[in-house]
Amino acid sequence: MRQIYLVFAGILIAVPVIFSGLASPRSNLTVSYNIFADTVPKGPDTTTPALKTPEPAKNDTEPPARIDTLGMTTDSTGVDSLHGPKLSKDSLDAPVAYKAKDSIILVIPDKKFYMYGTANTKYKTMEITAERMTYLQSTGIMEATTARDTAGKPFGRPHFKDGGQEFDSDTLRFAMETKKAKIYNTKSQYGEGYVHSEQTKRLPDNSIFGFKNGYTTCNLDTPHFQFRARKIKVIPDKLVISGPANLEIEGIPTPLFIPFAIFPITQGQRSGILVPGYVVNAQKGMGLENGGYYLGLGEHFDLTMRGDIYSYGSWSLTASPTYRKRYHYNGGMTLSFANTRFGDPSVKSEFSRSRDFRVTWNHSMDSKARPGINFGANVNFGTSSYNTYNVYDYATRVNNNIGSSISFSKTWQGKPYNFTSGLTHSQNLSTRDVQIAFPNATFSMNTQYPFQPKELVGKAKWYHKLGIGYTATLANSVSFKDSVFGKSKMWDALQSGMKQNIPISFTIPIFKNFTLSPGISYAEYWYTKKTERKWNPNKRVSIDSLGGLDTIYTQGFFAARQASASISLSTAIYGMYIFPKGSKVKAIRHVMRPTLSVSTQPDLAGNAYYNLQYNSAGDKQRTSFFTSSSVGVPSEGRAGSISFGLDNNLEMKVFSMKDTSANHEKKVKILDGFGFNGSYNMLADSFKLSTFSLYARTNLFDKINITASGNIDPYVYNSRGKKLDRYVWNTGKFSPGRLANATIALSTSLTSPDKKAKAKQDQLNNIENTESTDAAFQAQQRQLQAVKKNPGEYVDFDIPWKLDLSYSLTYSNTISADSGGVVKRFTQYLTFSGDFSLTPKWKVGVNSGYDFINSQLGYTNMYISRDLHCWQMSINLIPIGTYRQFSITISPKAGILRDLRINRSRTFYDL
User: Fold this and answer.
1) Cβ(337)–Cβ(316) under 8 Å?
2) Would the pTM count as exceeding 0.85?
3) 203: number of CA atoms within 13 Å, CB side?
4) pLDDT tens digits, residue range 633-660?
5) DSSP structure string for 712-766
6) Which of 15, 144, 192, 240 has the most crowded Cβ, counting Cβ within 10 A?
7) Is the Cα torsion angle 837, 841, 842, 847 positive or negative in sign?
8) DSSP assignment, residue 156?
9) Which whole-number Å values give the CA distances from 882 to 285, 860, 910, in the listed order?
C-alpha cells in the first residue's frame, strides 16, 4: 500500500491507495496512476521548491470528483460514461505513463504534479528519468532536476531519450505539446563523438542548438581533449557543425584554432577527401602519403584513390575500386603505379629510377546466385622491385613469393559431369622467375558403374563395383624472367598440351580385414611443341670456355601414350600395450596401415625420349622432348613395379583428473603419422629401386606442431658424380643410402588468457556471418593493410603477452654431375613475433627472425604502444636491413578523427 498526497484548501492530506495503471490526462482532473515503490514514502523533502498553497474552491457545495474503475472521471452532473468526459484545452493527445520510487504529490487546483525518487515519465516516443520531476498541466512543461545527498553531492541526473537521441543533464525542461526542450549542462553522444554543452535548445525536428560547447570522442565526464566552440548545431544523423573552435588538452587551451568544424555522424556511404600524412624519407625527401579521395558511387560500387608525392621527384598512385551485388557477388581491385627516383639526375653514376606496378584483384560469388556455377579470383601480380620501394609491412617484405588464381567451375545438376577452368600465376621476387598457366581447363566425368542395377536386390556382386571414369585436361604454361614479360622470348617458352585419362577400377573386400583394388588406366598426351637440346662444341659460354647446349623448338602436333594395370592391397593392424594398474599411463595403441600394389605398363612412350649429350666428354642421358610440358610426360620403358608403403599412428591413454568421465582417462597423440614409401621396378634394365620417402608429423601438448620429411637415395655414385647401378649396402656399409634432402619444421603459439575473448569471438563471428557486400565491410578489409604496416597502432591491451615461434631446418646433399663433388647445404631459420605489457597501458612488441647459418638477424620490426584512453601513441622501429625506418604516431582511437593523427617518420634505404 502506498500514499498519494492531495492538497485541498491549503491542507496536505495523505490518502492510502492501492492501484496500478496508465496515466492518461485527457481532462484537467482526470488522473490514473502507476506507482512502484519499495520503500515507505518520505513525502516532500526540504530541497524541493515550496508548494504553492491552493486557493479554496469557490463553491464548497460542489461534490468532489471521483475516479471510477475504468479510469474515467465523472462528476455530480452525471456525464454519460459511455461517451466519455469533455476534454479541456490543455489536454494531451496521448497517454502519459509515469511512476516514482518514493512518492507523488498532486496539487489539483494548480494542476501540478511532483514526483520524487527515480521518477520516470513516458509520453509517445519520449522518456525522461530523473530523481525529481515537476509537471505543470496548464503550460504542458515537464521539469526534471537532480537531488543532493546528505553530503551535498548531486545524484539522479535527468536522462532524456527520444527518437534515438539521449541526453544527460543537470536540469531539463520539456514541452509536451511542442516537443521543444531547454537543457542545462548536458552531455550527449552522436556516433563516436560526445557533445558537452552549458545550454542546449532542442527543436521539434530534433535539431540541437548548443551554447558554450565541447566536442570530443573521449567518453569521460571530464574529457582528456575537446574542441571548444561557443555555438554548435547538431542535425540528427547528418552533421555536427560548429563555429570557430579551439583545441583543449586536459583543460588547457592550445594554439590550434580552426575557423569552423564539420563532424559527420551519418551512417552509410559518403564521398570525401582523404587527408595525407606527412613523412620524411632520407632517399625520397619530404613527402605526403596516402592522400586522396573516396568516391561513393551508389550501393554497388565505390572508388578510393590515393597518392604519394615526395620532394625529390618520387610519386605513386593507387586506385582501389570495389563492387558488390547482394546475394550475387562482391570483389575489389587495386591498381598501383610508382615512380621512384634516387640521387641527383645530373650525376648519372649516382642516379637511379625504378618504375613499378602492382595489380591485385579479388572476386567471390555467392553460391546461391547460380547453383552449380562458381567464379572466383585472387590475383596478385606486379614487378619484383615494387615491394622494395613501396611496401613496408613485415609480413610482405619477408615473403618473396606471390601468386594468383582465377577459377570458373560448373557442375551439371543431376549429371556426373564437371568442368573447371582458370589461370594460375606464381612469382619469385628474389630470383624474378615467373610462371603463368593459362588457359587451363578440365572436364571430368564421375565414376560410373555400368553393371550396377538401379535397384539392387540381395548381396552385391563383385562386378557391380566395376567403375569407369574420364578426365580431359587442357593446359598452357610458360616460365620466364619478369624482364621479358610480353616479349618474344616469353612466347617462345610457351608450352601447350592436352591429356586424356580413362581409369577403370573396382574394389573387392577379402579375408574380412583386407581390401583388394584392381584397376586399369589409359592416358593420351597431345603436344603442340617439341623441344630438343643438342651439344654444340663451338658455342662460347664464356671468354675461356667453349661448348654448350643449343635449344631447338619445333612447332606441330605430337602425341604420346601410356597404359597401365595395377592391383593394390590394403589393411589396418592394431596393437595395444596395457600398463599395470596404478600407472599414470594406461595404455599405448599403435595402428599400422600397410599398402602394397603391383602395376605394369608397356613401353608406349619410346618416341617421346632421346639421348642428350650434356658435356664434352660425351656423357649422355635419356630425356624427353616434352620435359617442360604443361601436361606432363609419360614414363619411358616397360615397367613392372611393386609399390609399398607403411603409415603409422601412435597414441596413449593417460590418467587425468580434469576428465569428467568415470575412468578419468585422456587420449594423448604421440605421433599423428609417420612412415615411408617406395617402389621397385622388376622390368627395368637398371636402377630398379626408387628412392625412399620418409615423413612424420605430430602435435605435442596441443601446442607444438612438428613436421619432418626426407628422401634417401640407395645408390652409389662414382668420383665423377655419376650414379651407378649398385646399392650402398652392397659396399659393406650398414646404411639404407644417402640422405639426399630433409626438412624439419616446428611452430607454436603461446598466449596469456584474454578476459574478453568470448565477447571478441562473438563479434568476430558476427562479422564473418555478415553478408560481405557493403562498402563498410570492404573498408574493414582495406584497414587490414594498415594493421600490417603499423602493428604498434593496433595492439590488444587485453592480452598481457603472446609469443609466436616458427623454426625450420632444411638440408640438401647433392652430387655434381661433372666433378663428382658433394655439395651440402643447410638453411636454418627461426621466426619469432610477440608482445608483452610492461604495464596495463604500455605494450612492447617485435617481429623478427634469426638466420643461424649466416649468424644474423632477419628483417626486424619493433614497436612500443601506449594506451592514452581516447588516444594512442605508437613508436615503430625497423633498425636493420636494406630498409630502415623510425616513426612515432599519436592518434585518436575514434575513426571519425583518424585524420587528426600526428606522425613523424624517418626512412632510409641501402641501395
Assistant:
1) yes
2) no
3) 9
4) 998 888 889 999 999 999 988 887 666 6
5) EE-EEE-TTS-EEEEEGGGGT---S-EEEEEEEEEEEEEE---TTHHHHHHHHHH
6) 144
7) positive
8) -
9) 17, 11, 5
